[in-house]
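Hey, quick one: can you model this chain's 3D structure?
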Amino acid sequence: MKKFNDWFFAGIIAGLFGGIAHLLYNALLLAVGIQYKTFWHVMAGVFYGGKLTMMPSAQIHGMIDAIGLSVATGVLLSLTLFLTGKDYLYAKSITMSASGPYFVFLIIVSQGDKNSLIVPWVALFGYIVFNGILEGYLLNKICTYKTRIE
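Sure thing. Here's the predicted structure for all 150 residues.
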């Protein structure tokens, strides 16, 4: 596997993979009927209201926003690993990946639908597994975290 020296780019790549995996997990739970609303529905609700939230264009926007949040988390995690080192990698990655979206959920859900018990739990579990563990694993594999000397 190719290793990158650029921590920022490695964070983008890890965040993309984590975000896409998280959305696929949400889609699976939606398809089997475990949940009626996904994280991308909640993200679409930030920009659209009422019935507009269920429109395909709003759903796509919500998916892009959800992946964007994962990319931001991946970059912040990568920066943290760059500054502090890769020791305790999974403790750092789970903490960073679960706490960032937690604060986003405080802002987003406080403005939106609070009638679902499962959506916040599914999102938290998804962020721990797909953004915490998967992004931490990927960053460990694809980034050297060496500083460039010029």
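One thing worth noting: The chain is about 75% helix and 0% strand.
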